[in-house]
Design a protein that fits this description.
The protein has 394 residues and is an alpha/beta fold. The protein has helices at 37-54, 70-78, 88-95, 105-118, 129-162, 175-183, 195-205, 210-226, 236-266, 271-276, 283-293, 302-309, 334-347, 353-363, 368-389, and strands spanning 5-10, 14-22, 25-34, 59-63, 83-86. Helix 7 crosses helix 8.
């Protein structure tokens, strides 16, 4: 017998709530509240009303909304109120089961309550704060990565204008060019330089020896004398080019600093050292995979963790369709899937259980990408087993 509940349809700055004694009996109409202590106290009052009617301790039920539900969640945790956070996909499936799948804020309360009474959901358990901090830091690191990627796209665009075909003349396309472009924003500023003076500058700004820098300096000066830039020295493109270079340098430094913070925090977790024993998983991947998985104890079995990552196969069997060899659901943690794919790309390079499994799948005729997804599933199950038993990768 399910406990009575208060179903809450969470929005950005306000929510609708409604009490339910059972699936067929509501306790009052849906009401709107602001996201404030006064507003949330109305939910507490409704809980007391339900408990007085049923003599059972009710539970608050709402959907995960990314960030909008966080203030409600914090209020419930501070006041030690039992609550359930359900996936929006679960309630959407119940709503769409009706012939007319009408959706509005008040009706959503009824849909959430119906989903709660028809399906099984565990009570939300407060996780260790270190997992929450690690996840938020990992998400911010991803944000920094996206910002850096956009800067590099703009850098490439301006490079093709100011220094066209530069990559054809320089063998090292990382440290030396960045040091060069930090000071010189147009080929005309370089073409009359002496190779020795340019080489000394590059040696001072990079980790390369003088002879190597001299070789690169000769090549760069030759290029600058031959190339036709797409703009003049006074063009706005040159100024923007210099600004983008500085942005990239700052964002790389910030990204590296933040990644080190993530790794230092992940080192406090016992499972961090376990993941490092898996071939192809570095400090970076180990820390970020743990950040996305969180507390492993919240998954009752490996299958649940696989579903959380969204790499469980779609099930669709009808008539002659056997329901086999379908695509993965992708209804899960996108960031975790990306990290697992990166890990598999590294792991299959060596000689281990997962690489052998990959080559076995390839031998059956599977495409490389499909085989890698199968390996992601296997890797995640291995990680689950390792974290549960404390046994290192064999």
């Amino acid at each position: 017998m399910k406990r009575p509940c208060v179903a809450v349809d969470v929005s950005k700055s306000k929510s609708h709530y409604q009490g339910w004694i059972n699936i067929d009996k509501k306790c009052g109409n849906a009401k709107c509240i602001e996201h404030s202590k006064i507003g949330f106290k109305e939910i507490s009052d409704k809980l007391k009303e339900l408990e007085g009617i049923t003599n059972e301790k009710p539970v608050v039920v709402f959907e995960a909304t990314g960030v909008y539900h966080r203030s409600l969640q914090q209020y419930l945790e501070d006041n030690e109120i039992d609550f359930i956070i359900m996936s929006p996909l679960a309630s959407a499936k119940v709503r769409k089961s009706n012939i007319r799948s009408t959706k509005n804020d008040k009706r959503d309360c009824k849909t959430i309550a119906r989903t709660y009474f028809e399906k099984e959901f565990p009570l939300h358990e407060k996780s260790d704060e270190i997992y929450d901090n690690l996840r938020e830091m990992s998400r911010y690191y991803h944000y920094l990565t996206e910002q850096l990627r956009k800067c590099k796209v703009q850098f490439k665009l301006l490079l093709d204008i100011v220094f066209p075909k530069f990559d054809l003349y320089v063998t090292d396309y990382s440290e030396i060019p960045m040091a060069l472009f930090s000071k010189y924003h147009h080929p005309d500023e370089i073409k009359n330089k002496h190779p020795e003076s340019l080489a000394k500058y590059l040696e001072a700004k990079t980790c390369h020896h003088y002879n190597y820098c001299l070789k690169e300096a000769i090549s760069i000066i030759k290029y600058c004398n031959e190339c036709q830039s797409g703009c003049s020295k006074e063009s706005i493109d040159c100024r923007l080019f210099g600004e983008v270079i500085e942005q990239i340098k700052r964002k790389v430094e910030e990204q590296e600093l933040y990644l080190q913070k993530i790794i230092d925090l992940a080192k406090e977790l016992p499972n961090y050292e376990l993941l490092l024993t898996i071939p192809g998983i570095s400090n970076n991947l180990a820390a970020r995979i743990l950040a996305e998985i969180g507390d492993i104890s919240r998954f009752p079995r490996a299958k649940s963790l696989v579903a959380y990552a969204g790499i469980d196969p779609t099930v669709y069997q009808s008539g002659e369709n056997d329901g086999l060899h379908l695509r993965i659901t992708k209804k899960g943690n996108k960031e975790l899937r990306c990290l697992l794919y990166l890990a598999i790309h590294n792991t299959i390079q060596g000689n281990n259980v997962i690489s052998n499994y990959y080559h076995k799948k390839i031998a059956t005729g599977l495409a490389s990408k499909v085989a890698k997804v199968a390996c992601m599933n296997k890797l995640l199950r291995i990680i689950y087993s390792m974290c549960k038993t404390g046994v290192i990768f064999q």
